[in-house]
Amino acid sequence: MVMTLESLPRGHSARITAIAWDRLAPDEGQRLRAVGIDTGAEVTMAHRGVFGGRDPIAVTIGRMTIALRRAHAAAMQIEPLARGNL
Fold first, then answer.
1. What is d(CA 8, CA 16) in angstroms, rounded to the nearest whole number?
2. What pTM did the predictor assign?
3. How confident is the model over 15-32, as pLDDT tens digits?
4. What residue ranges define each of the domains in the chain, with the CATH number in brackets?
5. Which of 66, 8, 57, 74 is nearest to 37 (CA)?
6. CB 16 within 8 A of CB 44
7. I need a surface site. Which of 9, 28, 63, 71 has the fewest CB within 10 A?
């Protein structure tokens, strides 16, 4: 079963195993790479929006917290990590 970043529960950590860059606009992909979102990155789900589609979501990568659209997170396959690994 393939798990995507958008489905990661709040407070849980994961490693990004694949990103469907073709599902993102080139400038969006470039911005995500610039902040460290790429294959192999370890992220933690920090927050989810509360309205309608629950956009945006916030993930922690390193010492940064980054807001992402759910559509972007849906393009990222992950493997969950044991809690507390980051």
1. 11
2. 0.86
3. 999 999 999 999 999 999
4. 3-80 (2.30.30.90)
5. 66
6. no
7. 63
